[in-house]
Amino acid sequence: MAGYAAKHYTSHDGLALYYRDYGDAGDARLPVVCLPGLTRNSADFEALALHLAADGRRVISPDFRGRGRSAYDPQFMNYIPPTYAGDTMGLLASLGVSRAIFVGTSLGGIVTQLIALGQPALVAGAVLNDIGPELDPAGLARIASYAGKQTDPADWDEAAAQIREINLSQFPTLDDASWVRFARAVFTEKPEGGLRPDYDPKIGDAMRAGGPPVDMWPIFAGLADVPTLVLRGALSDLLAAATVRRMLAAKHDLVAIEVPERGHAPLLDEPESLAAIGALIARIDA
């Protein structure tokens, strides 16, 4: 049993976009909205979503356009955070959700902050998973090295080996079964056989064609009045510990947790992650 309903909605520009809907849509508590990283999709949040929905809380987990079961955009330069923020706000409006708690991994955390700027009343709380106002060039270079450039594996063992090679420095303690699970959230089967990355390779083109870096501190300031948790992988090559210290100085009620033996980004099935997210939600619910 999947544990969720697979649904679609239509974006403002006519794309059929996918989301997973966990828990009880009629639950009176605030829903949790999970937003994925650059080349990732809703599958990344399965463990967290099932955990949070176990007592009926609604969890909404979309695939951004160009990923997973969502349509690809014929205009690849639409693959930018403001587009994803607009899509997410459109999805929630279509569901009648006027307030929610957001969990954003990497890119999803940037999108969460943009939503808080554009529609402040919508964001009741935020979890920033290994993302902050400053991005370490080493992590950006690693992501740019594979985004849109991955080869198509012949089978799941080859897919797991490819994922392991890219990410071993960030997840040194994962076992073989975990790498296969990791791969199954990244690749999809081709009709003619074999596998391919489960995203539009032009996402990488959009990333590399982007303009100069944007100052994200004013974007982070959009969370000034929002209960916020930042999770940092202790081995992260994207979110430096020094950046987290500056975030704490800028937002005194920020809660920061370091997740051991994880880099970019924590998988959100770790006991430390689940406990910290649960504590933030309980604080908002109170």
UniProtKB/TrEMBL annotation:
Superkingdom field: Bacteria
Hydrolase as UniProt keyword: yes
Keywords attached to this entry: Hydrolase
Single GO MF annotation: hydrolase activity
Annotated InterPro entries: AB_hydrolase_1, AB_hydrolase_fold, AB_hydrolase_sf
All copies of domain AB hydrolase-1, residue ranges: 32-276
UniProt keyword annotation of Iron present: no
Classification via Pfam families: Abhydrolase_6
GO CC term (a single one): membrane
Protein name: Alpha/beta hydrolase
Organism, scientific name: Zavarzinia aquatilis
